[in-house]
Here is the input.
Amino acid sequence: MQRIEHFLNIIEEKNLNAFLITHNTDIRYLSGFSGSAGVLWISKERNVFITDFRYKTQAEQEVGEKAEIFITDKDKSYTDIIKDENLVREGQFIGFDAYNTNYDLYRRLGAKFVESNLIPVKAPLAEMRAQKEPYEIENIRQAAKIAMESLAETLPLLRPGITEKEFAAELEYRMKKKGSEKPSFDTIVASGWRAALPHGLPSDKSIDVGEMVTIDYGATYEGYASDITRTFFLGSPDEKFKKIYQTVLSAQEKAIDTAKAGMTGKEIDGIARNIIDDAGFGENFGHSLGHGLGLVVHDFPMISYHNEKPIPKNAVVTIEPGIYIEGFGGVRIEDDVIIKENSTEIITNELPKELRDIVIPVG
Here is the structure.
């Protein structure tokens, strides 16, 4: 109930009478419900969770006493139950998530409750979700541990002739065996010239001697995601690869060493970006430096040149600079990091990343 009470304070600060949560991640964050269908009504008077018959038992187990539970049927939709229970009254101001509310539901609410005021709010739980509670951090640690151990066990298979798809499948299999609920996103394995694709999904391409291989992947534990990237090289890397790799590593290490609570996402991003710019690769680093981790792999806060808000203490974020050169390949190095009051802690430091550690000899 503590999170709901905190959110009620946010509602009051925004001069809202109630809030309709429709985004699955926010529903889980506030109520504990991990299913894929439902809406959560939050107000001072009543907290109501509505789902369908598939999730009746699950809702009772996961939501418990945090909210009253109602089940839709063929004759009663979400909006019917909201109306029957008199949750919306004339003249009220009802908040909804401007980014994630289904348009059809918004349209039906507007048609059924014409005498109320529907107020869009962007990312209503962003600040709450950005600052992780101790148990959330431990879940991310466990997700990272599963991922690190799985890659360490799969690396012996990274040899000439294996395809990107085969290596990704072996890695995901090991994560599953070690307790990952699912990959936290579609595993990325991109070799050779394909390493220039920041989100290069695995292909049927065979990995060959003399190629870099970027592996970006993550595990999920108790709903919480990890996200790690390492770039390896099969054989003897040339000077161009070495320069790019050392530039990315220096940028990442400087950003991690400097970051602390209270700095903005833009400031942390700029630390790494300036190093890459000074090395002459500024135009080859086109994405943000990182993002939050939580119940989704891209959570709050963003470590981005667009984010001028301070990063809170106990945020868990990725730091992942990269350089990508079309026709040549690319390098990305990513770790999961806890932002502390005056420092950081790397959760994923069991995976080495010095140049000597990522070169795989080929006899």
